[in-house]
Please model this.
Amino acid sequence: MTVTDGKSRQETDRRRSPRRRAFVGVLLIGASVLPALACFLAFTTWLSSDIGRYRDYESARPCLGRTAERAWEDCLRPVVFTVESVKDAGGKGERSATLSGTPFWDGTVRFGDSGPLLSELRPGDRVTGTVWRGQVMALAQGDVRQRTADEPRDEVQMVAALGTLAGLLAVLAFAFGLIRLAWPRGQEFAVWRPYGKRLVVTMVSACFGVGLPVVWLGLPWWTAPVGVVAVVVLVGVLIYRWDRTDGPAAQDPVLSPAPR
Model:
């Protein structure tokens, strides 16, 4: 290869680099739309729907009539069922009971746990179900009661945490894309390795590391987004500061600290 060929290749790479940088920046900004939409739907649709359903269920009153004229009623109706079959696979297997003996609500109801009632049920047993809006919310036999998987729960904290995760991913993709388009000197700070990868791992870890304890402790749902964002911001600052002395920041006169 001649010196002329080497210079020509360097010139070609120099011309292509801004184009490639701009192309990647546009892709990242475009990709940020999907998690941003997921975040929007999580908070405006999923979260609000679950909260509204739980509040409606908590405020529902017993039905007045003794017999139901339709399957869907916005009240709590006690209904006697006969157990046809029971599945209690344990672990991650199916936990369900097939019920009959009613005019509208016969079918299979699912549970999240084996106890306290499901593991004790046998075909032919009579149980009392609580029906709300056409679904069986709970089964009871004597003093033992167990909620079904359809019963609304005050556990929207994870919905908020997942929505926050989607929003943070959108911000990350948009920020990296904008840096590639508008800040050529900051390209090294908007790369997958090490910064992007570390930040994504931090976001996912914070989502579950904060969201699940918030659910277990029964804290208000809004504490999940606040906690997730706080953890990600703190760890993000530490990630960039960690490489400040020997990373890109140390080599950039704009970002590196002035000598004393």
Remarks:
- The chain has two domains: 17-51+155-251, 60-147.
- The CA atoms of residues 214 and 223 lie 7 Å apart.
- The chain is about 50% helix and 15% strand.
- Residues 3-31 form the longest helix (29 residues).
